[in-house]
């Protein structure tokens, strides 16, 4: 026999899942309507977020922030041409280096995009370009934690976890925060996706490519019936035991049922064999270049997840054989390989979301943890540069075809419209209908926030 | 005129020249209003950085970051620096840089004295003052622990222990009655898990159920407390507090070498029932106790101090000072929460928003802690080997007396060029003129002090006399060894074993281009700038310098230009194959022009005398070698150094420094006066204050509350790590004080205290809930709280019932079983077995970036800070693990196999499995359901399936 339970409302479920026995500070949660949906702080523009994480740091001056002055001063000493330089990770400063890629203008907006991204360029009018991002760290790990959690050290909840905590998942067979792992785990490891001090339920579930995306999803019993019979006995014994009447134990029983259903729901999600040939081509799922095919599949699954009500998806980069976007040397080859892996799939995702009418309430965020220096590291690489870099948003209430902010004439430091990581977080939460100042969780004596005591919604980015 | 205006800035009387007024009103005021007032004026909705720019005095006084302008000096004025965007941390206005001509106007205005027409505002006297003592007076937790008499009751028959009275009195006041007594088996399972983290065996259950003597309960408790499993269980609770891990996390997740020695130390301490005040002292200052706790040749106390060093660390931080600030912030956070239940780290950027903790307190502690470094320290045989070193030195001196009349010293000429250079240098340490406290070797191999010029040394079989006084490694100790499974440091610090071969200098601030050390022999020099140890990257590679062996004395340059203004000390490690020595360390801008002349020069010792000396020494050394302790364990510990007082970092920023705060503890506990101490960093004297329950009300309250939390499922103060204003109020304040008083009166002994708690009537209550509206969350404990087992206890229980449990205590961690889902940089090359060799979960490797998915799913905390109260989550991932994880399947099969092999009826075997898993027999319905599932003549596979079902029964992981 199996148990049938009324599905738990999110608030009830939290009360049971967090510290148990009602110890969780419920007052910090968004309130909830009778139908189990969260009551938002204001009208949401986006229901879901797809975060395209460009691990390693894409060079702004080679992608979305053209700087003609670099061509003019190419090969000069940067201390002479640019002036005082900030310390860099490798302390191996070379000459001023022009971009190996040409920029052209695209769409009605005339947004400049370099030859690195010919396909994304065709979506120019949907992109909300931020050229004035600034981070606080020059090291990957700290910068990764900062981008993901608003803090440069291990232990804080990832922004996907915060979103799940604020909004819950619309699909009880799927976690609210899913990381589609293209093959590379960023420095700092899985803790970039963790729930920190939030309950474990909000932790990012890392899905690997392939039929078994998560651990322990495949039964090892010879038949479904065998597994079912074991679980049925367990349920039966639970029901015969008086202490099992406890509320928390009841929730555990419900979870066992959910887990059982996940065994089929997730493989079903990952099975893209029924997608049309046209769609597969759009996403480059069958591309001859393997990294492109992997990332294309991730993008397609991201769309399928959004359709199924997932809240926050993060896509990490596939391995292109060399390093991720972290080109300390041979920028030309490394950036070209990485761009090749993601360009078509991302453009496919944007176009597919748009034609299905999903882009308007799906916020796509494209960002790395920092940018790269306008001068070379050694001969032909670029070092980390947190002082000014480019990211973009698309859909979900962001304003398409605009450029916000600016770096100096070298593309080195922000001089206008500075957007901090906290501001990005505040803006993303805002589009989801959440006030970043009111999404709090009591831990260690403080009402913690994703944005700590910082962050402003960047209004010019909003539609 | 203008010059005067500047000088008279504070006492402006003269009328302003018309052109200055016009300039201000046309060019300056509009700019300030348009670009700054929104955040920096009286009208600001929320004043940013405490700075107002709507008045001259506001600008001169400045905000949180200090004065905004210095009248007459635009270059030094922060306002100008901010608008010029010259500092990435300080760019104003944030929306974009002002046009160049506007910036030029502002510069002109400031350079001309920052004229502000219309008279002066009065100095802002409204600046919020921080009322530390008032806050202390207003919050319960700062008040002294008061002796409490147990209250009288209506139902006098209920209590078994005076402390039961506190519980029942609260219930009676609300007309609630306590739950009935739990069945014996329920209590046995509860107490066995609580004290050992393992289930009771069927034999233990039967024995207890049969024992009808009044002492039956106490007998069980004594047995459990005597079991080594007790120490393992309670050590794991403690490890949650100190964010225990065996790797550093960050990008490559490198080892914290030998961290597991600390884990084993905690297990041993609990099992040996070390008093809590001693245990705490060992954590705070175990490396500098005048009388360390010894166990045979081992110094146990020093290992405790390793807890400070178990945090995350970064390699190659671009800002090494910021990185230091982050590391120490974590240490302060862990210390404050663990020992005081206070969130001291909240005062890093500003005075604590709620508690009586100031930013000055924070930096006073930060300074205090900076006085100690990190080291892998030998913890065995220190005392013994020191005696031998002393004996050896005396023996050498003795023979020296015998030969000295025979060897003459030659005259030594001075060297004017060297002297001129030397006069421009700054001494870090001169071992011929050491100051008290300067002698800081990590063990006995450098002897008990500098070796004087004229001391005997054997070189290539001949006795020679040293020409300089120096810190000299004694090759007698060349064969010091470390115990099995000892690891070296990672990165370039690990290029040679350092434990036992190292000496450190006092701390100093780098003021010149480099440091030069006059050395002999080979080894390794390490410049501990800001305590950075993860030397493994391109940026700070220069902090460890290999010293190649070579003839005679020479200068070792250590370039430190990059680190000017930062604090550091040096550590010198001997290559034990050489006569390494260091005589002098100085800071200098330029390379030394020459080797300084020796202190003394001696004629060669005649061959026959030399031969005799060599022979005598060899005999003596042989004798001593037989008594020396050659092999030692090595553990990460603090290495006490120099007293350091730090400046306040304004808003937590290491680049904006405020006043110096003398190193000390919290003002609200110890007063504002500097810490009095004779030598070292002052940590020992500070630790004595922290652990003094007479003056520190948190010390005992916080720990007894943790005991209560672990036994009763919820602390009397539910926020176990926060007794501050934002923490929870105690549900039974008098009981908390009663417990604290009793614990201290009992000599801080933990085992008798826990025994007392589990023998109370409160602990015997049934957990059967009577959902009572008067106490809906059971805060008053009207029934016992059902508890879900921790991940560790669930896993250990499976091993226990399957028969796979290996009860070996301690040892190096068992490598984590790496699944395909555990990826990332620093992934361990070795994947451990699925079943972790059957070892208890506390012995599984704790690598920050590769934590056990099984344990994480069941809420093992991520080791980043103190977690006294684990989450108890309830997620499908847990169910997936119990359904499909290979470990669970493996244990189920093993358990089934062992049951299949047993004789006896199916029914009796079902009953036995029930006893193993749930410490009770199945009722008739349960027995029937199980019997039906197993069918006639169940085979091994069927028993395995049945075992797997039992793992999935909720009772397996819930303890009523």
Could you walk me through the main structural features you see in this protein, from its secondary elements to its overall organization?
The complex is a heterodimer of chains A (463) and B (960). Helix content of chain A is 31%, strand content 17%. In chain A, helix 9 (277-283) runs antiparallel to helix 11 (331-355). In chain A, strands 1, 5, 6, 7, 8, 9, 12, 13 and 16 form a 9-stranded mixed beta sheet that branches. Chain A has a 3-stranded antiparallel beta sheet with strand order 2-10-11, with no helix packed on it. A two-stranded antiparallel ribbon of chain A has the order 3-4. Chain A is α/β, with parallel strands linked by helices and 463 residues long. In chain A, strand 17 (440-443) and strand 18 (446-449) form a beta hairpin. Chain B has 960 residues and is α+β, with helices and mostly antiparallel strands. Chain B has 32 helices and 26 strands. Chain B is globular and about 100 Å long. The N and C termini of chain B lie far apart (86 Å). Classes of the chains: A alpha/beta (463), B alpha+beta (960).
